[in-house]
Amino acid sequence: MLDWLEYQQELQRRVAQIGRLTPDTLKGYQALSHAGATTGHLDAKTRELIALAVAVSLRCDGCITVHTAQAAKLGATDGEVAEALGVAIAINAGAAMVYSARTMDALQAQREKQDGATG
After folding, report:
1. pTM
2. 89 CB contacts (<8 Å, ≥6 apart)?
3. What is the pLDDT of residues 67-116, one digit of tens each?
4. Which residue from 48, 45, 64 is spatially nearest to 56, judged by alpha carbons?
5. Residues 6 or more apart from 51 whose CB is under 8 A from it?
6. Rounded mean pLDDT of 8-17?
7. Which residues of 42-79 are buried (b: 16+ CB within 10 A; e: fewer)?
8. Structural domains of the chain ordered from first start
9. Is 7 exposed, middle or buried, given 0-12, 13-18 or 19+ CB atoms closer than 10 A?
């Protein structure tokens, strides 16, 4: 497995490098990252749990390391994290089901095209 603490430090160094090269990009990202916190509709721990589910769905190791650190800092329990990850697992399975249905639709369209070409 990955050394998550070392990875997080290296990621921070690389993001800082990007920030030095293109500061407005980093400022824009930070503005997006902090925008949700200003509404007060969700507490910080809930936002981090959502971020973890999304990170898994996007397969973003950087997001995983950053948001697990924050979730732990905010007192997220193993059970809360596991439940959030369960949502990600279910949504990803659902998305696979939806795209499987789309694939079957595409296959039907191809079959109809073939039938029309031979008929």
Report:
1. 0.85
2. 56
3. 999 999 999 999 999 999 999 999 999 999 999 999 999 999 999 999 98
4. 64
5. 63, 67, 70, 71
6. 96
7. eeebebbbbbbbbbbbeeeeebbbbbbebbeeeebeee
8. 4-118 (1.20.1290.10)
9. middle
In angstroms, what CA-CA distances link 1 with 13, 45, 95? 21, 26, 27
Q: How many residues does the chain have?
A: 119
* Residue 113 near residue 79, CB atoms below 8 Å: no
Closest CA to 63 of 51, 72, 71: 51
Q: Tell me, what's the pLDDT at 118?
A: 78
d(CA 93, CA 70): 27
